[in-house]
């Protein structure tokens, strides 16, 4: 089967490409490299021994997207393409609404033109907003998103759900990620943020490899186990495997289904820091600073539905996450731009 990955050269997309290839799928990647590197394709081929058709296009460009569907019999699509920086979305909300929603509408319209009826969508726990009780469950209220990025994910979930309700032969699986971290065990692909990382794990990795001076821990006065923020970190390889299970589910079920992909466990910033120090064998310089605007104290997943319905659950530990994140960073101190 031929699977189109929009944004397939990105962090989650590239790791999903590996797992799909391993599961015997033929992967076609459409990416404009606005937040990824073309070097990923060679790395994927090195890891899997398979080839990956690549289209360097803007997924919002329907004519470009039509060429992909004309040249390949696409059986299903996994939609990763989209801007994903929380902070940036607050600064330039129109760019986020235009890009993230346009890419989705174009994809759905071209899929319809070519009779492609299966979609997996990369959503985020951020759709639960700022008021949901933990652990987050799929049937909980969504909304009250903390930023435009989160709202784009929620609006796209709505678009997909309404489209699927109007087309009984359409299958959509919406995956709400918690905090993806780590890298493929080979160290050949990994997270490679464009500028100074916003997220904890790539920031720690850059400090560990000497690219950044020290970690600022945003807040030590939260009502959590040690005062620092608690999140549900999930190894990107476990997350990628969840996409293979979601695809298999979409092949058998029409309609829309939503799944949390997390470990179900909350890890604090300090716990992650200590685990990373063990993995890299060095102390990570850090300081405590005031809370970051918009941060929640604690959230993590109830991912029992994915286990029950998809037969998926995480297998990799926090130690695996730190080991693999460090392995990627130490072998690629400047990411793909060596
Ligand atoms: C994690 C914890 C910070 C950086 C975001 C998006 C979410 C998803 C994952 C896309 C928090 C603390 C962080 C630092 C720190 N992205 N921290 N110092 O904010 O939970 O989630 O990324 O889907 O949608 O909202 O992730 O890694 O930024 O923060 O102390 O330099 O680490 O306060 O407690 P977050 P994060």
Structure classification: alpha/beta
Question: What share of residues are in beta strands?
Answer: 15-25%
| Spatial order of the strands forming the largest sheet | 3-2-1-4-5-6-11
- H/E order of the elements? EHEHEHEHHEHEEHEEEHEEHEHH
Q: State the total count of DSSP E strands.
A: 13
Largest sheet: 7 strands, parallel
Described by the principal axes of the CA atoms, the overall outline is globular
Query: Treating each run of at least 4 consecutive H or I residues as one helix, how many helices?
Result: 11
Report, as a whole number of angstroms, the end-to-end distance: 34 Å
Q: State the helicity in percent bands.
A: 40-55%
Bound molecules: UDP-4-deoxy-4-formamido-beta-L-arabinopyranose
Average pLDDT across residues?
97
Radius of gyration: 19 Å
Low-confidence stretches: none
């Amino acid at each position: 089967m031929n699977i189109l990955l929009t944004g397939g050269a990105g962090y989650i997309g590239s790791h999903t490409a590996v797992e799909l290839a391993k599961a015997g799928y033929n992967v076609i990647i459409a990416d404009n490299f606005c937040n990824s590197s073309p070097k990923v394709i060679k790395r994927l081929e090195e890891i899997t021994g398979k080839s990956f058709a690549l289209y360097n296009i803007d997924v919002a460009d329907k004519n470009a997207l039509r060429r992909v569907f004309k040249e390949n019999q696409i059986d299903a699509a996994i939609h990763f393409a989209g801007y994903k920086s929380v902070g940036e979305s607050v600064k330039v909300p129109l760019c986020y609404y235009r890009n993230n929603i346009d890419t989705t509408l174009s994809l759905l319209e071209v899929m319809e033109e070519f009779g492609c009826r299966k979609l997996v969508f990369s959503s985020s726990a951020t759709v639960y907003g700022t008021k949901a009780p933990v652990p987050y469950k799929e049937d909980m209220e969504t909304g009250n998103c903390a930023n435009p990025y989160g709202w784009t994910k929620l609006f796209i979930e709505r678009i997909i759900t309404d489209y699927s309700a109007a087309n009984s032969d359409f299958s959509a699986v919406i995956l709400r990620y918690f905090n993806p971290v780590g890298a493929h065990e080979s160290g050949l692909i990994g997270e490679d943020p464009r500028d100074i990382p916003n997220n904890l794990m790539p920031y720690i990795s850059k400090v560990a490899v000497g690219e950044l001076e020290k970690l600022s821990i945003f807040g030590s006065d939260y009502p959590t186990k040690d005062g620092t923020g608690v999140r549900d970190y999930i190894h990107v390889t476990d997350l990628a495997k969840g996409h293979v299970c979601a695809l298999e589910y979409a092949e058998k079920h029409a309609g829309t289904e939503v799944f949390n992909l997390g470990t179900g466990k909350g890890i604090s910033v300090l716990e992650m820091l200590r685990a990373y120090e063990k993995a890299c064998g060095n102390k990570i310089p850090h300081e405590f600073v005031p809370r970051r605007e918009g941060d929640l104290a604690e959230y993590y997943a109830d991912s029992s539905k994915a286990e029950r319905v998809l037969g998926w659950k995480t297998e990799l530990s926090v130690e695996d996450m730190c080991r693999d994140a460090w392995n990627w960073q130490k072998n690629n101190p400047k990411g793909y731009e060596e």
